[in-house]
Each structure stands twice: as structure tokens, then as C-alpha cells.
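Q: Can someone sanity-check these two? First one:
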Amino acid sequence: MWLLVHIICYTLILLAVHHVFSYWKRRRFPQEKTVLYLDFFKQIIRRELQYVKAINADYRRFRSQPFIGIYCRLKPCLLVRDLSLANSIMKTASAHHFANTKWDYSRNYRKYNLLEKLSPIFCKNQLEGMLPHIEKVANNLLNYLNDQWRQDDKVVEVDAQYLISTFVINVLANLIYGSEIDHFKQTDNVFKQYVNEKLRNTRAYNFFLRQNSSITLREMLNENVQQREQSGLIRKDILQMLLKLRNGDNIEYNEKFTWCLKKDYGIKEKFLSLSKLTRIVEHLFDMGYESMAVTATFTLYEILKDDDIRQKIMQELEAFELTKTNCNNICVNYENLQKLKFMDLCIQETTRKYPSVPLIERQCCKDFKLPGTKLTMRDGDTMIIPLMAIQHDEKYYVNPFSYKPQRFAENKSGEKAEVFIGFGFGAQICVAQHLIKLVIKLILVKLFLNYQLESTDSASLKVDYKRLACIRAKKGFKIKLKKLLQK
């Protein structure tokens, strides 16, 4: 009797497992082999422990398929391998059929996509107003570097990865939280604690520590929000734009645009609650740090590796119109930064070779027929586009592991030799890409115009793609700095 019960239980379990792992086959989609054997379960475990690395391996494994059904954490996912198909899906369907639920917001029975609401924050005129804050942080970095010199020193060796990380944290804290802290002087601050805890590997340890720093950041944010809304304090930064949005003000630039908040902000109902505003701020800080720190570090890394690229950068900077402050720091303006076209190409090539977002994962929220097929994705299905794997594929990019900024240069007809997807597709393109490029350009300009830079022992540096691309070395990403004589 007990033997029969065991047989029935095991049979039901096997039938349930088979039902889960035959989802795509029942829908007539091509799918990976899911016979209950050891190699298949190894794939499931690998996707759990090394998600990005496993998805990249799956991309290479199914070369003959434009898309393939796979299973991650017992969840069916459609891996879209073909670039033209991915581009078509994201351009034609993402606004209505696919959603990044993190940015969904409902109020008074209406549903909003907050990314669309936030996009005007990062337009030209708003960024131009924020530039002095970014430059102030850059000058703090230069002051820190100048303090490293002793009287007889001609060359100073510093960790570039630490410098850029600190600079990016300082910029984001300044723009998003309205913090005036100089992170190069006050090294033990809540923002650095937050980032360090976020990057720890131990999840439980990370969780408890991060709660403490998050609470402190929320208290700081609440204090700044109350101060600005009650006193009418004006500061040209991202937080000011978020407060305008929270209070129902127009944040799109036009003739009537002003950085001030409306006078009746204390009377009417807020568009964004304080808790929702806090979550938006944390999302912006997290994504901004990952994108800026990774891209800036690797752009500098690649420029210093190649003398020809470095020479082109310096030639482009020679045409810069410069002024000096009383502190002898070189000042730049927004228009000059936009003229750095070759540096733009370098940033694009960095985002291709070292993407800060290795894959795009979206959930289908409305039935969608895949272009060129009779197959339909249903509400609730998950789609994965492996950006890193696509951008490292010889099918789409010549010598994908070589750093060639000119691959994205426009020809005489205005077309690019190779397609650039580093900041996303269609409606899902990164809304803050102009801010990211502005911050990266500014730190590179400040470094190259003030110092002669040289990488030390680049052969020992290794690139790690565990989650985000980062440089691994026993002594860090060390560079040598030699002061340039200002003309």
C-alpha cells in the first residue's frame, strides 16, 4: 500500500515538473532540451548563481535560433537573440506591451509611466543649469589630487577606480539628495556606506547594513524636501525637478519654465507621496552610480591603453575655450562639452564593450505577436534581451573585443557603420544618457587638461564580469599623474 502511495506521489511530482518545463513547447515556441537529466539542472542552478554569465552562455549555445525558450528560477523566459528582432520588438511594442514595472505608478485610478514623466529632467537646458554643481565636485577631486603631492614629488600614483567611484557618488549625492558634502575630505559618509554595502556579496549582511544607511538617507531627503517646500529654497538640481513634479509643476522646458516651486504647493494633494519620491531617488542613485562609474572607469582605462586614442583626445581638447577661476581651476561650459565628438565615440564604444546593463528583462503586460511569426507572447511572459552577448557578437560587430571608437562614427550620408544600442532600444532607451555622458566628459576633461596620465602595469589588470564589469587587480587600477604647466 505504502509503495503504491510513493509511486503515485513521485509520478505526480514528475508530471508537475514536466508541465513546468514544457511551457514553451506547449505554446509551439522553440525551447531548450528539458529532459530530466543532470546537465539541464546544472543550467538551472548556473542561472541562479551566475545569472548574467549563464545567459551569455545560452546566447552562444543557441546560435541557430533567433529566439529560444529557457527556464530561470523555474520561470519560463524567452531569450531573444536576434538584434533586428529585439530592436523591432522594443521599438514597436515596448510602450504598450512590455513594462518595466519598477517605474509604474497609479494615482486617482490613472496609471503613469514615471520614466516618461522624468525624461524632461535630463534635457539640455536643465543639465546646463546643473553643470556648476558637477564642476564643483570635479574641482574638489582636483584639490584632493593636488594635496597628494609632496614638495619634491614629480609624479603621484593613485587608484583611478577609487577616484572615479568617489567622484560619481559625490555628483549623485549633490544632484539627487542636494548634499554639499565633499566626499574627498569626508570619506566616511552615509553615501559611501550605502554603495559599499550594496556591493557586498553576503546578502544577509548586506540587507541589515543597507537598511541602516537607507534610513539615514531617507532622513536626509525628508529634511531637504521640507526645507525647500516650506522656505522656497531654489537649487538647480535633480531633487528640485522631482519636487516640482511632486507638486504638480511643469518640468518641461519652455518660455514659462522656472526652477521655483508653485506657491500653493502646501494646499493641494501631492502628485508623488514622500515614500514614492524616496523610492524614485534611490532608484536613480543606484542606476546612476552603476552606469557612470563603470563607463567612466573603462573609458579612462581604454584611452590610457592606446596612445593613438589618447593623442586624438588631446588634439580635440586643444580646441577647448578655457577660463580660470580664482583657485586656478579650469572652467568648462556645456556647449564646449557637446563639441567633444571623439570623446562621445569613446563613451559609446565603452558602453558597447563594457555595458553597465548586461541584459534587458521585461514582462509582457499585453498579448503581443512576435514580428514575422505566428507566435504570441502572453500577458505575464518574460522576455530577456542579452545586450552584453549581442554587443560581443562578431555577427554584429567587427572584432567585438577590440576597442574601436570609430566604429560608431557617421559616414558622409549620416549613417553609422555599426548600430549603437549601449543605452537601450526604442522607448526603453536610457532617459539619463545625456547626464551620464556629461558627467563622464567633465571628469575626463578635468584630468587630461590638468595632468599627464599614465597607466601602471596594465598587463596585470583583469576585467571581471561577475555582475557589472569592473577592474580587478591586487593594487587596484593605478595611474600615474604628472602636473601639466598651465599656459
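And here is the second, same format, sequence then C-alpha cells:
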Amino acid sequence: MEVAETLGGRGQYPMIRPCHAERIVLCIDACDDRLRYPGGPQGGKQFSTFGTIKKCAEAFLHNKSAMNPDHHFSLLTFKGNTCYMGPFNNKAHELVRQLQAMTPNASPDHPVPLSRVFDLVYDKVLKNEEEDEHMPLRIVLFYGRSGMCVMGENVLSRFKNVLVDILYIHRPVLSAKENKRVISNFSELQSCLSEKSFCFASLCESLLALQYTMNLLMHPNIRVPNVNARTE
């Protein structure tokens, strides 16, 4: 069990609050959005959103499992027009191996609407079960589409008691138009979330992406509302 310490005033003992084991669905965007710089100081360097997503998801699994081996994880991958969600288990090392073996598709012109991703979670997990307060559900979405974000209206209306976190990995922007699109995508993702959700955006191949991933480790019980959106 994870514990959170909150320091009291002078002469008071720290308060220990238990953080129950979680069931965490890791949603992996397995469509690679690549960019190769055409010369310049980074001449020929190739940037990959999927490569960064894999590193971040692996770091999340390793560290979250180390914090509490009773956490259970499920990998949900979406690419092209398909979505697949595996069973829950607490064997993080096996899920890391699955991630390492995963191959991406090229980013399509018309990506899977994220409503299909969340519909799959609802059908697989929430549709026929009662809420489990001793093992709450959380969804962590690693999203990597620089070109288009298809969130849809009221997509999270059935997830009122489920915390959804998002790490949005985008490729470098080469124009004001691309920058505007990335900001618009981030705003659309963020607007659907609750006040305790984390929503971060980071350039791919950036150490900041891993830093944001470490923030995602924070248990929902110890979060402070309304301070959880960051963009690079």
C-alpha cells in the first residue's frame, strides 16, 4: 500500500493516509508521428512520438509497480482503426516486454476517435460491475497525434468516478499553423478532464516527457485540484 504523509503544524505528528492499490488502464497510441528535420543545427535528426510514448509508459510501469506491487495494469493499444485491451494483472515486467515488442503504424489521416478508446474501457471494465472503492480505476492516456485530435463531445460523461490522466506527446512544430494545431489539440484534451486529472503536453524526445510521467505516478488521493495542466 502506498502512503502519503502530510506534515502538521509544530508539535504535531505527520498524518499518514493510505493510498489503495489502483487498477490502471494504460492507453497507448501506437501510431507513429515522425518528423525529420531538413538540415539546420539538428540536420537529419528524426523525431518519433511513439518512441517517446514507449519510454514513458515503461517508466510508469516500472516505478508504479515498485511503489505498490498490488497495482494492476491493463494495456490498451490503438492504431489504425483498431483498439485492443488486454486483461488486468500486476506483472509489470510482462507488460513492459509487450511494450518493447510493440510496433507502430504510420499516423493515419483519419485517426481513431478517442471515444472508441473510452467506449472499449467502459464495455470491458465498467459496464457490468459496481464501483470498487478498495481498488479504484484510473485511465492514463499516452497520446501522440500532432496532426489531429478527435476527442468528441461528452466522451467522458460515463467516467465521472474514474480519474483520466493524459500525456500528449507531439513532434516539433515547424510553423505557426502547426503550433496552433498542437495547442488546440491540448486544449481539447484538457477540457474534458476533471479538476484532479493531470494533463501534460511535451515535445517528443524531450526529458520533460519523462518528468511529466513521474508526476502521473501520484496517487489520486493526494492530488491538489486545478494545478495539474502543463504544456511545453
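A (reply): Looked at the second one. Confidence is low (pLDDT under 50) at residues 3-17. The first helix runs from residue 49 to 67.
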